[in-house]
Amino acid sequence: MTAKINRQWLLKQRPIGLTKESDFELAETDIPELQSGEFLVKNIYLSLDPTNRGWMNPVETYVPPVKIGGVMRGIGIGVVIKSKNPRFKEGIMVTGLLGWQDYFISDGSGWMNILPSFPGVPLPNFLNLFGMIGLTAYFGLLDIGKPKEDDTLVVSAAAGAVGSLVGQIGKIKGCRVIGIAGTNDKCDWLTQELGFDAAINYKTESVFNRLKELAPDGIDIYFANVGGKILDAALGNLNLHSRVVICGLISQYNATERIAGPYNFANILVKRATVSGFIVTDYFKRMDEAFKDLHLWYTSKKLIYREEIVKGLENAPKSLNKLFDGSNKGKLIVKISEEPEI
Amino acid sequence: MTAKINRQWLLKQRPIGLTKESDFELAETDIPELQSGEFLVKNIYLSLDPTNRGWMNPVETYVPPVKIGGVMRGIGIGVVIKSKNPRFKEGIMVTGLLGWQDYFISDGSGWMNILPSFPGVPLPNFLNLFGMIGLTAYFGLLDIGKPKEDDTLVVSAAAGAVGSLVGQIGKIKGCRVIGIAGTNDKCDWLTQELGFDAAINYKTESVFNRLKELAPDGIDIYFANVGGKILDAALGNLNLHSRVVICGLISQYNATERIAGPYNFANILVKRATVSGFIVTDYFKRMDEAFKDLHLWYTSKKLIYREEIVKGLENAPKSLNKLFDGSNKGKLIVKISEEPEI
Q1: pLDDT in tens, A172-188
Q2: Which residues in chain B are contacts of A276 at CB distance < 8 A?
Q3: Distance CA A215, CA A154 (A)
Q4: Euclidean distance between the first and final Cα of chain B, in Å?
Q5: Nearest CA distance, B17 vs chain A (angstrom)
Q6: Residue B262: which of A265, A270, A279 has the nearest Cβ?
Q7: Does the CB of B262 have a partner CB in chain A at under 8 Å?
Q8: Residue A116 parent element (H or E)
């Protein structure tokens, strides 16, 4: 193999508020020789997710913070191009925490999986429906939300990668589904193409009042992708014995000050609701179960999804904020290199 | 029967902040003739509970607000002294929503139960261990908190009627138990007499810091009787997959302004915690199950409890605030009339 240069986005400083490109530094390093048990992955696609922002803060969350000077953490898809590991042979497609870089050396430990073999599924979809996004929607809704026929399900960031799947899976399970999104276009997409029963534009409507109108008997399941006022409006409209899935609190990830919790917190008591935090990594051991259902729904065309693919590793930092200003159109993915011919 | 006068505490106006005696009016009314199916209860003991304060606010919670001009709602014990109802015969002891008054006419509907037959149990204890207090502690901890051996259980208002039972049941179930209370005397009572492993005086210590010291691996079960800063401190010290039982938010019941939720709300997500509202009325149908265990623990002297009995219905309004300034010593009960000779 000829010597290759590995471009790496390093975290230069902890961002304050939204990330700036100057919070990162694009370094170029040589790729070291492989040790026994190691293999070299050429990264193809990089997933940009709201949770990435949390990883940059100087607080231990469900994972340690990215180190200053370290390669920015990210989930990706790549192909093994050189291997001293019998399980991960050359030519195998993998997914895991490949990082914001061209190449990744792994010994197979940590979060590193061989891609499931679903013929005909486009590669980026393994960062979407058949990746963390699909697993998050599937287990968050079914395991924590526990939908029953005729339940009223409300989803925030409903036009986002996770939210749009949650709503569609809710429809498959017989729920009445209301989505909350930030533009009329997104709301139209939800109701006209994805089969949501209703949608609320949180930028032009009062979420609290609209929920009261659309769900007069209260919300049975609230799938929270954002925190702040939208979460508060939902908590204020819960039904008895409702379930609230806290999957994300996007609106708070860039906060520069401590954020008060929801004013309607006491309604958890009054309505005997259950509010559960949910992180998909706890469910990795059950991924086959989810992928089986998701693949069935995918092949029977019950799941519609969108992707926005940005070309070039160099564009990763500046693209991340699309997730927070809502300008991305579907699952946001960076294309780092061409797909290999199969 | 000679004509009797029924003294009734009516709610004159909705209190702002702590209740004042002038929010109530002591009226005297005649007792009407019983209709078919009705029976007359002579009230003996009246339970004063933090939840009473919530019932006076102009908001529907888990029950409708007490009407202005209506008899103040309260749980009591009484004896049937006249009956046109075949199930509730004269001489039978009952418990239910008897109200802040000398007499109550019931047709047996709503919350009205015949006292369980536990020989040797003092009557006030049917408003404590063998009443709503015991059921709340039992189901709140066991059904929602789901204690496992060696779990770290933290209880707020730990020297209160519910909290002190929760901690002791936690010890029976093999938990490490930390109580939070408002005086050193109460803290000493918890650790020296009730067998709590530790206690925190929230008036003189930083609850957040002390929880971090006493529970370095985090709290597995938090039993919340109060809201505000104490709840926030607990949420900031949760362990992975912890359970938070929201049984009460005492510190917020007298609030005159909207209260922000806990700043550490996001920790519910990070720790994949489950926060569940709990109201004991949902468990009435399973009360026999609880009373069986509670009676066993009571007769084997595994449960210690205290009561403070105030004499005279006329003292009900002024006694209620003891629950909020923490000056009561155990379950607060008003004695309305003498116990009947058996």
Answers
A1: 999 999 999 999 999 99
A2: 268, 272-275
A3: 9
A4: 20
A5: 17
A6: A265
A7: yes
A8: none
Q: What is the DSSP letter of B334?
A: E
Length of chain B: 342
pLDDT at res. B260: 84
A111 in any annotated domain = yes
- A276 and B274 within 8 Å at the Cβ level: the answer is yes
Asked if the C-beta of B61 comes within 8 angstroms of chain A's C-beta atoms, the answer is yes
Answer whether B265 sits within 8 Å of A265, measured CB to CB.
yes
Same domain, B79 and B212: no
The CATH number for B92's domain is 3.90.180.10
Give me the residues of A, 89-128, that contact B with CB < 8 A.
none
The dihedral through the CA atoms of A72, A78, A81, A83 has a sign that is positive
Distance in angstroms (rounded) separating the CA atoms of residues B227 and A280:
29
Do B110 and B141 fall within a single domain? no
Residues A273 and A315 in one domain: no
Q: Is residue A101 part of a domain?
A: yes
| Residue at A288 is within a domain | no
Write out the H or E segment, with its range, that includes residue A136: helix A132-139
* Confidence band, pLDDT 50/70/90 cuts, at residue A305: very high
Does residue A185 contact residue A161 with C-beta atoms inside 8 Å?
Answer: no
Instruction: Give the domain CATH number at A152.
Output: 3.40.50.720
Q: Does A5 touch chain B (CB under 8 A)?
A: no
Residue of chain B nearest A280, judged by CA positions: B272
**pTM of this prediction?**
0.91
Q: Is A273 in contact with B272 (Cβ distance < 8 A)? A: no
Residues A166 and A244 reside in one and the same domain = yes
Instruction: Judge: B261–A263 Cβ closer than 8 Å, yes or no.
Output: yes
B227 in reach of chain A (CB within 8 A) = yes
Q: Are residues B156 and B264 in the same domain?
A: yes
CA-to-CA dists, residue A325 to A20, A46, A321, angstroms: 14, 20, 6
Considering only CB atoms, B261 lies closest to which of A61, A262, A278, namely A262
Same domain assignment for residues A317 and A225: no
Give the pLDDT confidence of A30-43 residue by residue, as tens digits.
999 999 999 999 99
Q: How many domains does chain A have?
A: 2
B255 touching A, CB under 8 A? no
d(CA B113, CA B111): 7
Contact indicator for B233, B207 with CB cutoff of 8 Å: yes
A125: tokens are 């979809």
Classify residue B241: in a domain, yes or no.
yes
The predicted-structure confidence for A54-105, as pLDDT tens digits, reads as follows 999 998 888 899 999 999 999 999 999 999 999 999 999 999 999 999 999 9
Q: Do A319 and A273 reside in the same domain of the chain?
A: no
B259 vs A: CB within 8 A: yes
Q: Which range marks the domain in which residue B54 is found?
A: 5-127+306-335
What torsion do the CA atoms of A92, A97, A103, A107 make, to the nearest 10 degrees? -70
Looking at the structure, do residues B44 and B105 belong to the same domain, yes or no?
yes
Distance CA B125, CA A212 (A): 43
Q: Do A263 and B263 touch (CB under 8 A)?
A: no
